[in-house]
Amino acid sequence: MIANSMQVNFSQLRADFPLLQKTNRNKPVIFFDSAASAQKPRQVLEAVNHFYQHDYANIHRGIYELSERASLLYENTREKVRQFIHAKEAGEIVFVRGTTEAINLVANCLSQDWQAGDEVILSEMEHHANIVPWYLLKTKLGIALKIIPVRDDGSIDTDAYQTLFSARTKLVAISHVSNALGTINPVKEMTEIAHAHDVPVLFDGAQAVPHLAVDVQAIDCDFYAFSGHKMYAPTGIGVLYGKKAYLDLMPPYQGGGDMIESVSFSKVTFAKAPHKFEAGTPDIAGAIGLSAAIDYLQAIGMDEIFAHEQQLLSYAEAALLTIPTLKIIGTAKPKVGVISFTMDGIHPHDIGTVLDHEGIAVRAGHHCAMPLMERMGVAATVRASFAVYTDEQDVDALIKGIQLAVRIFS
Ligand SMILES: Cc1ncc(COP(=O)(O)O)c(C=O)c1O
Asked: Does the 46-298 domain belong in CATH 3.40.640.10?
């Protein structure tokens, strides 16, 4: 167990991840698809296992000790998430399935009084999870989507952003970090601009929380969404942060048990936020895993993780640029450890297949960001994304794999 010391030796973190000790096509697993979902450290797996074996019961409804213990562990995770993203109150943390559900929740519950002609500002670099919920509102209510352009280098056009506001703007919803290019957006400045127009802001933080320290109060955003599985927790648990004033105003998302105060056939009264947004049995074990994942990240240190991945990013970019037919898509700085690239004469899927045969997992495709691919003038890219367990040897293997693809296809 390495991620416990003050000074973390990143090269040893790999030992924490059981799956990375296995083989893929008879070769050591080299995992460059952590932006899709990160591998899980033993500490998280053991926490979930321990919970099921020692503390498991449904929450918030049993009057017996086990249920009280499970409820406490679940609510303690809410407090841990609050600290992790520096929210003011634990009541501002809503547990959801993931980023997608968090954004759908806001789209459904914030739009109750929106009308045809109202506007939402998105950007050209959004993941489909932050496009489709708003598109559905467009078809249902007749709202308009205003799109912030992306510059050639993959940065968001903040000048154009300022011109998109009108008296009908209801929300700005953009990614903190682009999943396809790695670009880190200037979220604090963008929030200030939106607030100057009295418009609330939602950030899709799915690709930010695993890589950098997030402080929602410093950003001053109104909503912040992220998924546990991209930050080393299990699938099925995620978080919507919402400022209390908004959560109090918004109606429930789904109806069911655990989100009510009282129910009769003639009248239902709802629990207060965040519980009014958590209908039914939640992913209790997922929350326990999320708690362990936060402990894991904090034992390493978010600033240390950022610095490690930045150093690796420079190393990888320098090495990739020695391959003359390779083009990096998205060069704007700052960015996290995500590198998208194309190669002359070789389709991204073919590169992905060659790499797979070498035991190297990358993502090849549109990365659920089709409008961004169109903007960058490509149908698809190969994406290599980093995590705490990625090291220079992984990057060296990636380069060798790409050189092999060049030889095969030339
Ligand atoms: C930026 C971004 N937003 C949203 C999502 C959707 O996350 P989930 O599938 O966990 O809901 C992803 C997943 O790749 C993402 O990268």
From this structure: yes
